[in-house]
Amino acid sequence: MKKFFSVVSAVLLSVSLWAQAPQSFSYQAVIRGGNNVLVSNKPVGIKISLLQGSEKGKAIYVETHKPTSNDNGLVSIAIGGGTKDASSTAFASIDWSKGPYFVQTETDPAGGTSYSLSSVSQLLSVPYALYAGNSKDEQKLTVSATGDTLYLKNGGFVIIPGLSNANPITNPTNGYGPNINDVEGNSYKTVTIGTQTWMAENLKVTKYNDGTTIPNITDNTQWQNNTTGAWSYYNNDEANNAKYGKLYNWYALSKTSNGNKNVCPTGWHVPSDSEWTVLTEYLGGLSVAGGKMKEVGTTSWNSPNTDATNTSLFSALPGGYRQPNGYCSGIGSYGYWWSSTENGTIVAWLRDLAGSHGYVSRNDFGKVDGFSVRCIKD
């Protein structure tokens, strides 16, 4: 199955165009083949549809692109700047106040037009220059000369971080927040990143926060055939727990399959796919957020741990994963973290990082796989 992972990078094309709203916005994605290998330095066929109202809403705008991926499989396009479908409304006439809007991506990794559906992602942050330039909302008034503030007629305003030196995106200034404990007394660092507060360590708990035990499955066959909540150590070796935490199948964290229980401490929850997107957008987008999330050095990550700065203090660690057949792989080289959002009956969304690059991948894997968990504050 072909994979295409995408996150809207909420960055406008040019601040110099605020007098007249720019009619496009940046969009980046990483492309991988069915074997999870990057599609590097190759032309890729991409079809973008803007859906109105829901993931299955009406496609009000459709366009195609044929970019060439870079060494890291990254493609960058400008939505609004592609070849428009003849039956589509004009990009300039989209009323951004009539959202929500969703970006549907279809791809042909061979560079042609035999597109297959790859992903549908909500456009969480409507580009404000587009909104100001074409919204029917009568509350709008003007945009500041520096491009970071949308002033409204009622006296209110909206600040867009990172679009001017006067209003930069900032990293945490006070280090880690107060530690929190799970139901078993395991203690975790926390960190506030933008509007969110995250655990800065991988989950280690063996019980739901109501005290119910989560089964530890060590047998590979039993792991492969299990469809209820379970956890394991990497390679069933408890020595890996102190640094990397435990690996959980998706059933352990989904309230629909675990009896409406919560694997996270009280007041915290497993992040949704959208909450992961908020984090990576705040850190600059898919292509650069990974380096800002990874613990620096090669004590925990294998060399070279490319681009790792950990400026977010997320302190991501490469705990590896447990495959559907029960065997483990990737510790020291890859980190995977579940989201609570499923993508059908057998797979669910997650985020993954690697020591060999500094970007984040949005991926879907089988619910029987074992991955790390980070919790986010309610």
Q: What is the gist of this entry?
A:
With 378 residues, this protein is mostly beta strands.
Write the layout of secondary structure elements.
Blueprint: E1 3-7, E2 25-32, E3 45-52, E4 58-65, E5 74-79, E6 83-84, E7 101-108, E8 116-122, H1 128-134, E9 140-143, E10 149-152, E11 157-159, E12 177-181, E13 187-193, E14 196-199, H2 220-225, E15 231-232, H3 241-244, E16 247-248, E17 268-269, H4 273-282, H5 286-293, E18 321-322, E19 328-329, E20 334-342, E21 347-354, E22 361-366, E23 376-377
Antiparallel strand pairs: 1-2, 2-5, 3-4, 3-7, 4-6, 7-8, 9-10, 10-11, 12-13, 13-14, 15-16, 17-23, 18-19, 20-21, 21-22
Helix pairs in contact: 4-5
* Order of secondary-structure elements: EEEEEEEEHEEEEEEHEHEEHHEEEEEE
User: How many β-strands, per DSSP?
Assistant: 23
Largest sheet: 5 strands, antiparallel
Question: What's the number of domains?
Answer: 3
Backbone shape: globular
Give the % helix: under 10%
Mean of all residue-level pLDDT scores: 82
Give the radius of gyration: 21 Å
Beta content:
25-35%
Q: Output the structural class.
A: mainly beta
Strand order of the largest sheet: 6-4-3-7-8
Q: Please give the alpha-carbon distance between the first and last residues.
A: 35 Å
> What is the helix tally?
5
Low-confidence stretches: 1-22, 135-140, 167-173
Describe this structure in words.
- The structure is a single chain.
- A 5-stranded antiparallel beta sheet has the order 6-4-3-7-8, with no helix packed on it. A 3-stranded antiparallel beta sheet has the order 1-2-5.
- It folds into 3 domains: 3-127, Immunoglobulin-like, CATH 2.60.40; 138-167, no CATH class; 177-377, no CATH class.
- α4 (273-282) packs across α5 (286-293).
- The chain has helices spanning 128-134, 220-225, 241-244, 273-282, 286-293; strands spanning 3-7, 25-32, 45-52, 58-65, 74-79, 83-84, 101-108, 116-122, 140-143, 149-152, 157-159, 177-181, 187-193, 196-199, 231-232, 247-248, 268-269, 321-322, 328-329, 334-342, 347-354, 361-366, 376-377.
- Mean pLDDT is 82; it is low at 1-22, 135-140 and 167-173.
- The two termini are 35 Å apart.
- The protein has 5 helices and 23 strands.
- The longest helix has 10 residues, at 273-282.
- The chain is mainly beta.
